[in-house]
Design goal:
Order of helices and strands: HEEEHEEHEEEHEHEHEEEEHEHHEE
Number of domains: 2
Number of helices: 9
Shape: globular
CATH topology of the largest domain: Rossmann fold
Structural class: alpha/beta
Number of strands: 17
Strand content: 15-25%
Distance between the termini: 64 Å
CATH class of the largest domain: Alpha Beta
């Protein structure tokens, strides 16, 4: 901190324009020009844009409160999942998501990716009937724990984004991009470089960062967190109570989201993330649409209609949805193996 203050003092002590020959005219905004509006990577409820390309955003929360889970939901949404109210901007062709984990093991990062595969219906079965994930060019996972210094980790992320230019990049563990999250100069520089990286490559960069340890303190840690909340266009806070996780947009530079986003991890259905919509009007409307004029449906017919409506690539996600509706008493199933489903 002392060095930063000393540097600022030297700059302030310099006579104006002496020793500083840089031309700042390229940074001047011309009021005679029309500048483009933000291009959002996602829309919520097809109305409110979020995560604009060329900017940075943040996901914050206490340890083990669901930050990574919510980042998986955003990743799946950019890749086409519509389960949580998000939809990818239709003007973005071939959207892609790159995930950079700075602290977890390869196995943990792979488990995070599995959340996205479940939501997208991408999981396959191998010869032993075990879950199998096939590599995809539009969804790439990187673990950086093997890189020792923050500089190495940042350069690895920067080089990859500059080369591949993903639509969205998620940095899980942004604190590892600095040696000291309370160092003003270092924190300011890293956030500034992330802004430049996002802008130059028209990528939305999402940083996951812990909040302070105090129970009622929702501020992100250190000067790094202070700079991040100042510069981010969107900040989401994730909390966990009982079975339910809730993501709330706490800061927004554009039009804010109108509601919180609740979700659960359905441990009875392979830990699949799903919205807690069971008893809301949206789920009831969906069921009414699926049944149409029919009073009852065979399981195969209901699964087929769900897949067509949701764009699922296999039966598993549709069956998970049906199991959730049964538990929430929105539908019932007749007796026997071939019993039909009815609305409650």
């Amino acid at each position: 901190m002392g060095k930063a203050i000393e540097t600022i003092g030297k700059i302030m002590a310099e006579p104006l324009n002496e020793g500083r020959k840089k031309d700042f005219r390229p940074y001047r905004i011309s009021l005679e020009k029309t500048y483009p509006v933000p291009v959002f990577s996602l829309f919520y409820k097809e109305q409110t844009g979020t995560l604009p390309l060329g900017d940075i955003a943040a996901i914050k929360g206490k340890a083990k409160q669901g930050k990574s889970a919510f980042s998986a939901i955003l990743a799946a949404s950019v890749l086409g999942c519509k389960d949580f109210g998000f939809s990818v901007n239709p003007t973005i062709k071939d959207p892609s998501v790159f995930y950079f984990d700075t602290e977890q093991s390869d196995e943990n990062a792979s488990s995070w990716a599995k959340n996205v595969y479940k939501l997208k219906g991408w999981l396959e079965k191998d010869n032993e009937n075990k879950d199998f994930m096939r590599d995809r060019e539009n969804f790439q996972i990187y673990t950086l724990r093997g890189l020792v210094t923050p500089k190495e980790k940042f350069e690895s992320i920067s080089d990859t984004i500059e080369k591949e230019k993903p639509t969205v990049a998620i940095i899980d563990g942004a604190v590892d991009l600095v040696t000291d999250f309370n160092n003003i100069a270092e924190s300011s520089e890293v956030i500034g470089r992330l802004l430049r990286l996002a802008s130059d490559n028209q990528c939305s960069i999402i940083c996951c960062l812990h909040t302070n340890k105090g129970k009622e303190d929702s501020n992100m840690r250190g000067h790094l967190g202070s700079y991040l909340v100042q510069k981010a266009t969107d900040v989401f806070e994730v909390k966990h109570e009982g079975r339910t996780f809730t993501a709330e947009q706490t800061e927004c530079r554009n039009k804010p989201l109108s509601e919180k986003i609740p979700f659960i991890r359905d441990n009875e259905n392979e830990g699949t993330l799903r919205p807690t919509e069971g008893k809301t009007e949206s789920d009831k409307k969906l069921l009414k649409k699926l049944f149409g004029e029919d009073t009852e449906l065979r399981s195969t017919d209901l699964v087929k209609r769900i897949r067509e409506e949701k764009g699922y690539k296999d039966d598993r996600q549709a069956k998970n949805l049906i199991n959730g509706w049964k538990k929430e008493n929105l539908i019932s199933k007749g007796e026997g193996r071939f019993g039909k489903y009815r609305l409650m």
